Amino acid sequence: MLRIRTANGSASALDLSRRDVLKAGLAAGLTMSAFGAQAQTLQATPANQAVEWTEGFDASAPYQAPIRSARPTLSAETATYTEQAITQYMDLSARGGWPTVQTDKMLKIGMRDPAIGALRERLAVTGDLQSVGGQPDSFDSFVDGAVKRFQLRHGLNADGKVAGETLKQLNLPVEFRLRQLETNLVRVRSMSGFLGDRYVMTNIPGAEIETVEADIVHSRHQAVVGKIDRQTPLLTTKINLIKFNPFWTVPRSIIIKDLIPKMQKDSGYLDRQKIYIYTQQGEPLDWRTINWNSEEAADYLFRQDPGDLNSMGSVKIEFPSPEGVYMHDTPSKGLFGENARFHSSGCVRVQNVREYVFWILKNTPEWPQERIAEALTSGERIDAPVADPVPLYFQYVTAWANSDGIIQFRDDIYNRDGLDVAAQ
To answer: What is the spatial distance between Cα 342 and Cα 413, in angstroms, rounded to a whole number?
Structure first.
């Protein structure tokens, strides 16, 4: 027997199977997360996934289904569950949506504040907070767990604090979220076909990477993707080459936008970064012979040696791309801990790149994990062709739902959804 509480506070007792629980919740207009733990996620989370995606929920908070299961972001089922999410949000909209949380201070565990009552109600409407009692104005462990859950559903670091970006996401109106789901339904439908026995999916707005095999996620990796003025392109291709300890040939766009201005301000920059200059014929040049206030500097080749300073780190992952982009490691590992990971010039930086490369080369017999580990630390320039080139997708999805019972949202970083919050 399962008792489901709807958003308007009424309750009904039902004797249902897990599948019936999902159907009943949808009919009642609940978000799937409101009853996801009772129904359970349909796939268990892989053991290696826990290393990279730690939910960190308060252990005492009851009935919380995992935010991430083994289901891929985009698969044959995503469109169906996104359609169901649209139905739920239409119902939420018809019933008045959710309250606005108005506060000029950071709300966090241990506090008591009148705004916490609205926060509790806001989190309850979307199923992030279960009915557990407690003082209405108290930010207790249950509210802390609910806030973290909300943050993870929106691609934010789960620190349990309500301020800044978390407050902004809480206060976006239900009509905006509904339009977001409708806009993205077209995108997820276009990716509902067969994507490959194993493939890599990069969701640009989420700055997230999934390796998928037999329609199950093997691992998830944080990514750093392109800035708003240097966007990572949409792409369908195949990973065919791994380069260990690569040289970095600086793209012309970065020479013009970054390198030349830095040399104009700091003549020692290239020496410190171990970047060397060559003519188009490969002849070395001394930086002192170049007029850094002219256009001539952009006509030379700039190459950075392998090593700790190399902008591509220890690995470059190559694939055919009309825009010349690629994936790579980075020495700036701290960027992976940021909420907004949009810092690159279009290429994609990969967190936990060793696990990523292990998986890409798993069907390449001459590259067992031991050899990969040696290559990563050798400092030697080595190429590893991929025996079975792996399908790679760069996609742009800001809202979706899956059989894991969670509705996910991400910021429209490149303004491609065409939605205006003020117009809602």
So the answer is: 8
